[in-house]
Amino acid sequence: MRAVVDAISMSTIFERHPNGEYPEGFSYTRAANPNRSQVEEALAKLEGGTAAAAFSSGSAATTAVFQALEAGDHVICTKGFYGTKNILEEVFKPWGLTFTWMDTNNVLAVEAAMKPNTRLIWAETPTNPMMLVTDIFGVSEVAHKHGALALFDNTLASPVIQRPLELGADLVMHSTTKYLGGHSDVLGGAVIARENSEFFQRVRRIQSVTGAVPSPFECWLLVRGIRTLALRARTQSANAQKIAEFLAGHPRVEKVLYAGLTSHPGHDIAAKQMYGGFGGLMSFLVKGDDKDALGMTSHLQVITRATSLGAVETTVDHRYSVEPPGTPTPKNLLRLSVGIEHVDDLIADLDQALGKM
Q1: What's the mean pLDDT in 116-130?
Q2: Which residues belong to CATH 3.40.640.10 in the chain?
């Protein structure tokens, strides 16, 4: 059989050779599996890295990186990562990790925040949901100057739009649930390394020892999603650009946060490090308060109200409602994850919903 689509290897165990070795290199699925090896190889190639480790969720991938550090190490982290913040505050602060939250789009401020024990800069660009842009090359240089590692969460851009490893980053992280999976039906995460360093080998060891790994079926779904990633990401990005331009001129919209607009303060940097578009995610502030923002979404007919992002369908999310108390996200902000529907339909849906506010 010469199947075009690879089979799903559901076996948790693999037969030993009489001499005790494993001829195919697989012993137990928690340690490795043919489907996971396939997706890890694809992820490494997509990001231009040498190795990748797939996890059961983006949170699991994040946790493994922090577990690879030591108690007493210091991390600089992009402000606004509410999921990552929970992990650091609730798990790693008691464990002894120290961290500084800041706007990493200010390279000089990042350098000023470096400490002798800073081991890692963890940044996201663009940020979710405020869409701030960080200079990948500049921040990576700061990290290396002080003997630290630079990791960039590339979930929002995807490797089709942005490749941090080519700009000096040491590690890239993804919630593969989002653009890489692309169909709202798989949960996963990944860490990709520019070099198969001692630190990354520790991440890999943690992946195996703690067992936070995706199932063979989830890996198979992720490979399926990757096959159409380039087509989806480019369509989503092109649609988002048109929608951002439409919203920027709408009388009921206060502000649009999207790096593709020349009015965005990070546009010039984004244009240098994002290729062929600026991604499919944006935020916009309606004129009014949280009731006005939520009311607007109730009139949408094509766009779905949902929390996640990066899939084929367009979704809108009122972030203030789902983020923890004390969030800096404005009450009138709506995050829009643009899908692959016809852009005219999406614009018409937004226009009629805004008109009913």
Answers
A1: 97
A2: 34-227
Query: Can 82 be counted among the known catalytic residues?
Result: yes
Active-site residue, selected from the candidate residues 36, 85, 135, 153: 153
Strands (E), the chain: 51-55, 74-78, 98-102, 118-124, 149-153, 171-174, 189-193, 253-257, 281-286, 304-305, 315-317, 333-337
Please pick, among 45, 82, 202, 290, the residue that the annotation labels catalytic.
Answer: 82
Its CATH architecture, for the domain 34-227, is 3-Layer(aba) Sandwich (3.40)
> In this model, does residue 20 exceed pLDDT 80?
no
Structural contact between residues 59 and 190, judged by C-beta atoms closer than 8 angstroms: no
**Is 178 an active-site residue?**
yes
Q: Which of 30, 79, 224, 242 is catalytic?
A: 30
Scan for tokens 């203030």, then name that residue: 320
pLDDT band at 83; cut points 50, 70, 90: confident
The residues facing 334 across adjacent strands are 284
Arithmetic mean of pLDDT, 314-331: 91
**Fold of the domain spanning 229-355:** Aspartate Aminotransferase, domain 1 (3.90.1150)
Question: What pLDDT, on the 0 to 100 scale, is given for residue 216?
Answer: 97
153 is annotated as an active-site residue: yes
Handedness of CA 63, 64, 65, 68 (dihedral sign): positive
Question: Is pTM beyond 0.85 here?
Answer: yes
Q: Is 317 an annotated catalytic residue?
A: no
Q: Residue 55: pLDDT above 90? A: yes
Dihedral-angle region of residue 49 (phi above 0 means left; psi in -120 to 50 means alpha; beta otherwise): beta
Q: What is the mean pLDDT of residues 279-302?
A: 97
